[in-house]
Design a protein that fits this description.
Order of helices and strands: HH
Mean pLDDT: 69
Largest sheet: none
Distance between the termini: 24 Å
Shape: elongated
Number of helices: 2
Number of strands: 0
Low-confidence stretches: none
């Protein structure tokens, strides 16, 4: 049970990291070819920032991990 929770937690963190990495890579790739004008880059970045903020708030709000879950420190001692 705890192993599956750990895997789920690592997957969600990894997913957030992947989204941030891809968005930052796309942002830097837009500067390289010179096809896009500077105003297009600014507009796209202005669109990306609120999307990223909404994503982070959504990840926090939809976090299904139990706050009061047993961390494993207070294991009952068998008598």
């Amino acid at each position: 049970m705890k192993e599956s929770m750990l895997i789920k937690q690592n997957y969600t963190m990894g997913l957030t990291g992947k989204v941030m990495l891809v968005s930052s890579l796309l942002f830097f790739l837009m500067f390289l070819p010179g096809m896009f004008s500077f105003h297009t880059v600014i507009l796209l970045s202005m669109l990306l920032i609120p999307v990223g903020l909404i994503w982070m708030v959504w990840m926090v709000l939809t976090d299904k991990r139990d706050v009061n879950a047993d961390s494993g420190d207070n294991i009952p001692i068998p008598r």
